[in-house]
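agent> Task received from the user: take the single chain below, predict its 3D structure, and emit structure tokens. No templates, no multimer pairing.
agent> Plan: (1) validate residues, (2) run structure prediction, (3) serialize to tokens, (4) report one or two observations.
agent> Step 1 OK, no nonstandard residues flagged.
tool_call: predict_structure(input=
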Amino acid sequence: MSLVKSFCRIMGRVAPLHLAEKWDNVGLILEAPHVRPNANRVLLTIDLTPAVVEEALSTPTSLIVSYHPPIFKPLTSITMSTPLQASLLRCAAAGISVYTPHTALDSVADGLNDWLCTKVAGPLRDINWTARYIGQEFPEGLGGIGRVVTLKQPVELKMLQFNIRTELELKHIQVAYAKPEREKTMVSTIAICAGSGGSMLLGVDADVYFTGEMSHHEVLAAVQGGHNVILCGHSNTERGFLPWLAKDIEEFIQEELEQPTDPADAELLKGLEIVVSQKDEHPLVTVDV
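)
tool_result: status=success, residues=289
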């Protein structure tokens, strides 16, 4: 078995692909036709941008885990005429494969949305807060879609705003208030969805909707329905999870090395270095003119 296939099996344990949304494109997105020599690095990124590809090419990278799928809609051609397609071709030519977990990683237990719960409410789950899924729980307790956090002690919306901005290490967030009390509103329930959560959150019974982005009309609908909204920017709700993802991957690799399901498979994983990209970044900045 190849290193790529061995690593895909590890990622399937980190975030089983059957947990992904039906509309999503997850799994091995690009399989390079050859193995890059002397490359033992896996690079984690939110998006496969030209800057990230340059970073991969300048380091001993053999695999890229791109949270967002670089191929989402069907391609009618693959040429060097667009930056994304050029990035994929450069990766393939260099022997770098690309894997995407996306919504499987959102929904899996202890995945991205559960991580966001801790950014909202702190680490002491079942002591200071509880959480449920927006939809039904997946079989075998593997996770579920979205999260709704219930705080055991209500807090002012101002404090929740501060906690989110601080925990995600952001200078700015956007807030839409549903009540005249605005930031002094007391809240106890927060519905959470990483990335773009408008379609998932609308209609959920919660004091606050917390996600990366929502459309203008989704925000209006939420506020008119009595729900406050906190937005942080799409990938700002995702990027901070990458170091945690790196630890998860390392733990599953170590588990496979100690108790291999396939000795030959495990041998290929030895010495892999899991690294978070330094070039991946949110595409928008807030400018004070």
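agent> Step 4: summary for the user.
The first helix runs from residue 3 to 14.
agent> Done.
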